Amino acid sequence: MVTINDVAEAAGVAPSTVSYVISGKRAISPKTRRLVEENIRKLGYHPHAGARALASSKTNVLAVVVPLRTDLNVSVVMEFIASAATAARAHDYDLLLLTKDEGPAALQRVASSALADALLVMDVEAADPRVPMLLALDRPVVLIGVPDHPDGLTCVDLDFAAAGSLSARHLAELGHRRIALVGPSPAVYERGTSYAPRFLRGFTETAREHGLAVSTRPCAHSYEAMRTCLDALFGDGPAPTGLVVHNEAVLPGLLSELRHRGLRVPEDVSVVAVCPDTMAEHHAVRLTTVAIPAEPVGTLAVEMVVRQLGGHTAPESGCSRPG
Amino acid sequence: MVTINDVAEAAGVAPSTVSYVISGKRAISPKTRRLVEENIRKLGYHPHAGARALASSKTNVLAVVVPLRTDLNVSVVMEFIASAATAARAHDYDLLLLTKDEGPAALQRVASSALADALLVMDVEAADPRVPMLLALDRPVVLIGVPDHPDGLTCVDLDFAAAGSLSARHLAELGHRRIALVGPSPAVYERGTSYAPRFLRGFTETAREHGLAVSTRPCAHSYEAMRTCLDALFGDGPAPTGLVVHNEAVLPGLLSELRHRGLRVPEDVSVVAVCPDTMAEHHAVRLTTVAIPAEPVGTLAVEMVVRQLGGHTAPESGCSRPG
DNA sequence: TTGAAAGCGGTACCAT
DNA sequence: ATGGTACCGCTTTCAA
After folding, report:
1. CA of A209 to nearest chain B CA: how many angstroms apart?
2. Residue A9's domain spans which residues?
3. How confident is the model over A85-98, as pLDDT tens digits?
4. Which residues cross the membrane (chains A, B) (predicted)?
5. pLDDT band at A38 (very low <50, low <70, confident <90, very high)
6. Do A99 and B115 touch (CB under 8 A)?
């Protein structure tokens, strides 16, 4: 293993000088700098992460807690991870991956054993048991999602209320008078993940403001559940002419089923799908999409936590929602 | 921060004794053990990962390199990560996440700076530039996917040849005489990712053995591309009656398009989809699925690399393919 | 069965 | 502008 001493010796300087060349924490003569940098390259020197962490109390690692449930939007999670990873590297951080089902104890473990400098926590629930833990941790944290009591923790979230509102307004502007929402799985609502009700609220309120008739239903992830859901929405009374699908999984089936029932899209019913644009491209019919831009959220979350690590002690008050 | 010295002092023993209680590397009297363990709990002691890594040259971290391209099967990647993360924790390892687009240099960096003890590399290509790098690294490695020249590196992979073969045989046994394959995006083939051609080979060979007429086409991820693909497969000569879709992204659109063309599934054409079972459930028509069980692969990969770390020096020869 | 102490490879303070 | 060195928290060898 190449150590800082090897580099120092080869360059004919003190180890501390090598350290300072790397960190830039004190002035170095151009000559010495060149000499050291040359030897770093030549020897292929990489500082030992553990030694560094021990001496500096900094790991340059961010822990990311991600949900691995499949009833959740897989592509959004991936998009988030991808952008977070990229943003992290841009700030010279690496990502340590934790799964949500390790529970609050994992956060404790990672923080206390100095495996990471800060934590990003996805899929935060209304009364998330991890929130009190995170508050006790005394490390920078960014929550992705908004719990009932953030208590000063920084949150980033997609503005699902706005997305719901946008979906409703779009249909209102197309002239629809009766609209319906196919929501996420009931399990999502029960878990108290805040995004579902927030979307619902935005949707309902805006629809009401436009004087639209609204019906809404959660929908589990099966063809059967989706059919039952459509039965309910189209069953009694005048049928809706606009449909918002906030449930990626059932979208393909739903489109088939609509066709099966003789409902053409968009002639008989307009469909707004809450999903990535790329997904809509794979369908035959014309859909409007309301994208969930997970990518900027991943980037933003990393940037916020890096800012906190940079000594920005006062946590950003409240919770921002880009998008 | 609670250190091993704090625990030692509280328990009235030497720091080394605490260390040995934790590692179990030497005999400890029951009395002392109890005493130490009590104080560890009471003080909430967690060994400092960096210090540990420095002293022992072991990080208890596995680096995982994942592809974040969206033209790749997102759910397979997630499934892999999830199972790898779980398996890793079961062996007391954490996962460091690297993205494929950081290239070979990232592997170098992580290994040389002792950020991880071993590497898991997904989405390995035929002439993968990371392979020579990995060989030079002198750390345990498990490749997910098989390059042209593994040169002794351990590989795990899904048996795509078998999956291709299975797809063809299934259609043969249903009595079909003319079958077709809608393959992954041309980009996948160009990249030389081995799974695509392996599937193709298994498919083609088995079809030939059964005396079936075969046509195959890659298919990019757009509705247009998919239609062009169907045009080609169904255009000239007698139409196939069995269709294998090795391309998750276009599946929903393809099913719509078939219906649009007046082809009923499975009456007019049988469809075998290579995708997770859960995905098939979301469609209206009866599909046969050939699942890609990423989960056992993630687990297996971790287990293999952990075994190597356990001193199993001789790399498992060749490449295993579960499933 | 346990203790003492020498490193592991950096960082950052104190000198010069 | 640079060098010397104590110390970060843990592991492990050597002694007792």
Report:
1. 34
2. 1-45
3. 999 999 999 999 99
4. none
5. very high
6. no
